[in-house]
Amino acid sequence: MGGNLKEIRKQITSVKNTQKTTKAMKLVSSSKLKKAEELARRSKVYANQLNAMFDDVVKKIRLRGLDSINSRFFVKSKDREIKKLDIVFITADKGLCGGFNTTTIKEVVRLMESYKQKNIKVRLRGIGKKGISFFAFNDIEVLDKVVGLSAMPTFEKAAEFIDSVVEDFLNGATDEVIIVHNGFKNMISQELETRAILPLTINVEQDSQDSILNIEPEDEEDAILDELAKKYIQYNMYYALVDSLAAEHSARIQAMDAATNNAGDLVKSLTISLNKARQEAITTELVEINAGAEAIK
C-alpha cells in the first residue's frame, strides 16, 4: 500500500509540473497574439489600400476602351483549361495548438484528391515544419520547403518565396496558384482560408467611385499592371503568413487553456485517489494492530 501512495504522489507532482508548463505557454502565446493581431490589423489596412489602387489602375485602363489586358498575371478567359496547379500551404513549425495544423493539412489533401480526379497535376509548396513533415512522412513531394518563416514572417522573405511561384506561373509551368492556411477570426476561433492568388481577375464593379490616383496610365499600362500585380501577390503572401501566425497563437491559447484545466481535474482526481489509499492504509494498520492485540490475549 505504501508503494501505491508513493506512486500516486509522483503522478500528482508530475501533473502539477505539466500544468505549470501549459499555463506558462498560454501566457506566452497570449502576449505573442497581441503583437501578431496588431501586425495583422496594420497589414490589412495596407493591403486594402493596395487593392484599391490596383482596382483603380485597372478601371482607368478599361475606361479608355481597352477590351483586354496583355499582362500575363491576368486571366484571359473564364473557360481556360487548367492542367497544372500549385498549392501553397502554411502550417506552424511547432505543435501543441490543437487542430490548427491538422485542419490545413486535411484541406490540402482534400484538394489534391479533388484535382487528381479532374486529371489536374498538383504540386505542393510548403511553409512550416508540421505540414512539410507530414507530407515527407507520406512520401508526397513538396517542391519548395521553408521552415522558420511562419514563426517569424517578414515581407522580404515572403516575397522571395512567392517570387519563384510567380515565375513558374509566368513561364507556363503552372496554370493556377492556390494558397491554403488557417486565418485569425477572433480570440477563440480560426477560419480556414483557401483562395486562388494567380491568375488575377479584373474587378471593375466600382467604376462610380472617385479615383484614388492622380495619374493616368498611357503607353505603359501593362508594365504598370505587372509591377502592381507583383507587389499585390507578394503582400498577399506576407499577409497570409501574418494572419496564420495570429491564428496559431489563438489556437495554442485555447489548447493550453484546455490542457491546464484538464490537468487541474486530473490533480483533483488523483488527490481523491490518494486520500482513499491513505484511508485504506490507516484502516489496514488499525486492523492489524487490533488483530495483534487479540492474539496477545
Automatic annotation (TrEMBL):
GO terms for cellular component: plasma membrane; proton-transporting ATP synthase complex. GO terms for molecular function: ATP binding; hydrolase activity; proton-transporting ATP synthase activity, rotational mechanism. Its main location: membrane. It is a peripheral membrane protein. Pfam families: ATP-synt. It comes from the Bacteria. Keywords: ATP synthesis, Cell inner membrane, Cell membrane, CF(1), Hydrogen ion transport, Hydrolase, Ion transport, Membrane, Transport. Gene3D superfamilies: 3.40.1380.10, ATP synthase, gamma subunit, helix hairpin domain. It is found in: Cell membrane; Membrane. GO terms for biological process: proton motive force-driven plasma membrane ATP synthesis. HAMAP family: ATP_synth_gamma_bact. PANTHER family: ATP SYNTHASE GAMMA CHAIN, ATP SYNTHASE SUBUNIT GAMMA, MITOCHONDRIAL. F-type ATPases have 2 components, CF(1) - the catalytic core - and CF(0) - the membrane proton channel. CF(1) has five subunits: alpha(3), beta(3), gamma(1), delta(1), epsilon(1). CF(0) has three main subunits: a, b and c. Belongs to the ATPase gamma chain family. Produces ATP from ADP in the presence of a proton gradient across the membrane. The gamma chain is believed to be important in regulating ATPase activity and the flow of protons through the CF(0) complex. This is ATP synthase gamma chain. The gene is atpG.
